Amino acid sequence: MDWITKAERLQQLPPYLFMEIDRLKAEVQARGVDIIDLGVGDPDLPTPDHILKRLTAAALDPRNHRYPSYSGMNDFRRSVAGWYQRRFGVTLDPEKEVVTLIGSKEGIAHFPLAFINPGDYALVSSPGYPVYHSGTLFAGGRSHFLSLLKENQFLPDLSAVPRDLLPQAKVLFINYPNNPTAAVAERPFFEKVVEFAKEYRIIVCHDAAYSEMAYDGYRPMSFLEVPGAKEVGIEFHSLSKTYNMTGWRIGFAVGNAKLVSGLSQVKSNIDSGAPQAIQWAGIEALEGTQEPLKELLAVYQTRRDLMVRGLRKIGLQVDPPKASFYLWVEVPAGYTSARTTMHLLQEAGIVTTPGNGFGEPGEGFFRISLTVPQARLEEAVERLSRIGF
Ligand SMILES: *Cc1c(COP(=O)(O)O)cnc(C)c1O
Q1: Ligand 1 neighbourhood includes 238 CB (under 6 angstroms)
Q2: What is the DSSP letter of 219?
Q3: Could you give the CA distance from residue 214 to residue 222 in angstroms, rounded to a whole number?
Q4: Alpha carbons 282 and 223: distance in angstroms, whole number
Q5: N or C: which end of the chain has fewer CB within 10 A?
């Protein structure tokens, strides 16, 4: 059936990174190797009990069996606004400035459909989460990539955007704490972003999926805390990482009312809202006890320290990240990202992600995810010291 061809928008996409890695992993696994997967960032621990209890109770209630509202339940959006007030001191109108998402990936992917016209540019960090680029392509837009380099603390250099491109730039995607580099951003950077956005009339999408995953007492800020941010921007949040809820698919976007309304309009034409029982679980997550989160952060912090020590022992360079659950590690001298990850997979059965898989400027690094139990990380450290480089 040669006449069945995929649309150009799919052919333009790079292969989804983790599908390619899964293939290589399966090959090694087929040889009987006990694989330690430090590749994908999917929390290994279960959703906290109190959240599951609320979810199951809500699932049994027939009021939650019907179509949800497009923009999300009022209770959920009020809960989000309350959380923003408590956590960041940012005031939001739950009716106009909050929309429920079926996971933040969904919202990020759909957002360009609301604001990007064919030929418009999105400014996209590289290395970066692949969805900013694919969402832009699906909307007929083009990505202009901004390199995240170590010498700039993995922040994009906004002054490096070519002048003649600026009039066509419609959206800027940023993400701090950052995946994959684990970098964080402070107020002066966000202030610069707001100034830049106002000057060149560019919409800012801040992906804050890791805002709660921080260590050593560090508390990442919201982009919306900066004066003027709400005039230019929208912030995407996820319950996935904070509450081990990746499997439930629940997130939200907040900020400028026009941006929220555009995204909601696209969604009302594509999906029919997040399941209500899951929104109730989200309410419980945001309003209930935050003890499980504290315990979770202690777990990741222990894993982080263990892995950083192990990597340094074999001569690899890595800074313990202040936030996220990734280590962004420099490859050893004489190695590329791909050769490093192949070496780790073939010789030690350890899956990691090559930095250039997130974009060419990620070459020279590889990413380790801390989402496996401590005993497995200890085993990984042990194998690393055995194979070395
Ligand atoms: C995990 C992740 C998300 C998406 O999370 P959802 O499960 O879709 O809510 C968004 N952005 C980044 C950078 C992520 O790592």
Answers
A1: yes
A2: -
A3: 13
A4: 22
A5: N
Q: How would DSSP label each residue in 327-372?
A: EEEEPPTT--HHHHHHHHHHHH-EE-EEGGGG-GGGTTEEEEE--S
Q: CA nearest 67: which of 260, 233, 272, 330?
A: 272
179: Cβ below 6 Å to ligand 1?
A: yes
Between CA 203 and CA 151 the distance in angstroms is: 26
Rounded distance between C-alpha atoms, residue 357 and residue 20, angstroms: 10
Structure-token match 């003890």, residue found: 291
Helix (H, G, I), strand (E, B) or coil at 214: strand
- 252-311, pLDDT tens digit by residue? 999 999 999 999 999 999 999 999 999 999 999 999 999 999 999 999 999 999 999 999
Of ligand 1's listed atoms, the one at least distance from the Cα of 241 is 1
Q: Is the dihedral of CA 56, 62, 68, 74 positive or negative?
A: negative
**273: which residues sit within 8 A by CB, 6+ positions away?**
67, 68, 69, 70, 71, 72, 100, 102, 267
Q: Ligand 1 mean position to 335 CA, how many Å? A: 29
Question: Helices marked H in 173-275 — which ranges?
Answer: 187-200, 229-232, 257-268
How many A from CA of 250 to the centre of ligand 1?
10
**Per-residue pLDDT reduced to its tens digit, 221-256:** 999 999 999 999 999 999 999 999 999 999 999 999
DSSP 121: E
Phi, psi for 81 (deg, rounded to 5): -60, -40
Site to probe by mutation for ligand 1, drawn from 176, 179, 353 as the one with most ligand atoms within 8 Å of Cβ, is 179
Q: Read off the pTM.
A: 0.96
Q: Which domains does the chain possess?
A: 8-46+291-387 (3.90.1150.10), 49-287 (3.40.640.10)
Q: Which residue out of 18, 100, 104, 106 has the highest number of ligand 1 atoms within 8 Å of its CB and is therefore the one to mutate? A: 104
